[in-house]
Every structure is written in C-alpha cells, then in structure tokens.
Amino acid sequence: MKDLKQMRKRVFKQMLETRGWKYRSFLRYLRLFKYAAFAPTRGTFLESYYVLMRYLDDIVDGDIPLPEGYQSESEYISEKLRFARNPVNPKDEADHMLLYCFELAELFNENFQEETEDILNSLLFDANRRGKLSVFSKEELEHHFHLLDIQGTIRATLKVFKDDPDKYLILEPLGKACRYQYDIEDIEADLAAGYVNIPQEDCEELGIEKADLMDASSPKIREWLYNHAQDGMELLEKHRNIMPEGNFSLIEKWTFLLVYELPARKVFQKLISETKKLPVNHEKIEFSSK
Asked: InterPro entries, from UniProt (predicted)?
C-alpha cells in the first residue's frame, strides 16, 4: 500500500510539473469527489485508476522511461493487457495498482475489467503508431478513440457514480468533444511524437502532406484545427440537447459541466476567436501513409 501511495504522489507530481495548466483543476476534483459524494471508496478508486492510466499513457508517449526488461512500449502495454485479462502474479507497480483498483471496485460491487481492456487496447494502438506519422481513416481513429474516451472512460465513470454504464452513448457527443479538445491542445506534442490524429479524409480534403505534418504551425494544419474547434462546439451543443435523456444526478451534471464541458468550450472558443481565416491552397491529394 505504501508503494502505491508513493506511485500516486509521483504521478501527480509529474502531471503538475509537465502540464499543470491541464491537470490541476482535474486533480482537485478527484480529491473533492470523495467528500462531495460521500463516497471515499469510490473516490479512492477513481483517483487510483486515473493515476494508473495516466502512468501507462505517459509510458506510451515517452514522457517517462520504459520499464526495464521491455524492448518497446507496445510490448509493455501488451503485457499489461494480458494481466488485465488474467490478473494473477503481478510483476510491477502498475500490476499492483490495477489489482488494488479491482479490489476497491469489488467493495462497491463493480467490475472494471471490460473498460480496462478497452482503454489498454486504445493505448496499444498509440504505442504501435508512435513515431511513424502514419495517417489513418476517420473510421479507424474514431474506433480507437471511442474505446478510450467513451466506451472505456465514460462507462467506467458512470459505474463510479452508481449509474447505468449503458448511458455512455448519451454522453458520446461530450466524449468526442473532449477528444477534439485534446487534439487541439496537444497538436504540437502529438505531431512531434509521430501521432497523426488528422483523418486521412481530412488530409486529402485540405491537401495536408507529410511536410505539413512536420510543422504544427502549417496553415493547413491550423485550418484543420479551426474546423475541429467549430465541430467541437457543435458537439457540445448536441450534448446539452440530449443530456436530459440520461436523467443524471446533480453531482454527475456538475462533473460533466466543470470537468469536461467548460474546459473544452474554453479551448474551442479561444482557438476560433484567435484564428484568422487566411486563403489556403486546397489542392486535393491522394494521401497514403504507406
């Protein structure tokens, strides 16, 4: 238990040092949830589970060193996926943290194995494409982001709130909007790491070529971000229109608003207001990552 607490502190410290602007308010919410919801066990689970997934994501992104004994991030995440399916004989602190999370979940009669596999499969997708600047179709990107942001993360969150996890489809527009927010915030870091979250269809439509993917300030990339922000605003409006169908609790509504909707809306509005529409050569191309 002491080692797990140290792991949480270490991950929190790194999050605040590297991207405090992005995570500070969210980390405060994790702590507040324990008391506002009168659910210390669920709150501890949420905090520990988030730390674990943040830790694994940082390994995939190269933000922290790959643990010893592994040749690649893909190999490491593949092993975590196997362990999640059969959680026996833990090898490292990530395995112990996952076991701890599963044990906490049992205390409030929930199981997060399916959601964990969805999230890890999405991380494996990222691990396999890191550094390659590979371009994927919109369908394939949305499939993996759906596993991570909606089918994995939102379903897990609803379970923590003691709600029906199948309501996750009602929150799909919010989940997609948050993904658009991350795309915008992380565009420079993602492209530098070789991740292309711009669908092949958009690359062809806007004439985005490999040279553009090497420069996040490219006019074609900036135009894609502008369009992405506008699409994100539409998703947030759709979210507001259909959210009443979920009959969510007050704490759920406040969580969706403060932790997800408002930060995304702020990013979209800022980019839209600051972007000057300049003429861009939209010569369509046949874009292939092969």
From this structure: Isoprenoid_synthase_dom_sf, Squ/phyt_synthse
How many residues are listed for the chain in this entry? 290
Q: How many domains does the chain have?
A: 2
What would the pLDDT profile of 24-35 be if each residue is shown by its tens digit?
A: 666 666 666 665
- Tell me the Ramachandran region of residue 62: left when phi exceeds 0, alpha when psi lies from -120 to 50, beta otherwise: left
Contact (Cβ atoms closer than 8 angstroms) between residue 164 and residue 227: no
User: Does 66 lie in the same domain as 116?
Assistant: yes
104 closest CA partner among 8, 241, 217, 214: 8
Domain boundary among 68, 96, 130: 130
Whole-number Å distance between alpha carbons of 145 and 200 = 15
**Helix axes 219-242 and 262-274, enclosed angle (nearest 10):** 140
Residues 83 and 216 both lie in one domain: no
Whole-angstrom Cα distance, residue 96 to residue 94? 5
Range of the structural domain that residue 84 is part of: 1-130
Q: Give the model's pLDDT for residue 15.
A: 57
Q: Where are the alpha helices (DSSP H) in 154-261?
A: 155-160, 172-185, 187-192, 200-206, 210-213, 219-242, 250-255
